[in-house]
Amino acid sequence: MSKPPSTEAAYRPLSPHLQVWKFHITMFTSILHRATGIASVVGAVMVAAWLLAIGLTASGHCPEAYTLFLSFAASPFGLFVWFGLTLAGFIHLTGGLRHLIWDMGLGFRISSANALAWWSLLGGIALTLAFWAVLFATGKVVL
Question: What is the pTM of this model?
């Protein structure tokens, strides 16, 4: 038989509902950091598929495996996937740097936290665009 809740437990304050919260850039980048971490797992699977294709081709078990993988990776959809994974990786990297700054005990004022959140978001986007600009400029990637 369970005992009734104590008076103190019965009147605990409830967490505010989502409608009470206003949008904050730090909230968005926190969620985005988690999402990009999950997206990085997709990138790891893509790299594993690339290595598997290399191994199958080199061993002679499936000589067309690497060509098949490259045809997907170089297709417009494949380039879109690689771009998205690059974006996720750079945003996750800059978000990790933001967390490193917080781990040092810095940037906890609201203005500093907001500035770091914007820096991590825009920095990740800028790094992605610069990375792909170099790939296209050097001819490593073509459409």
Answer: 0.81
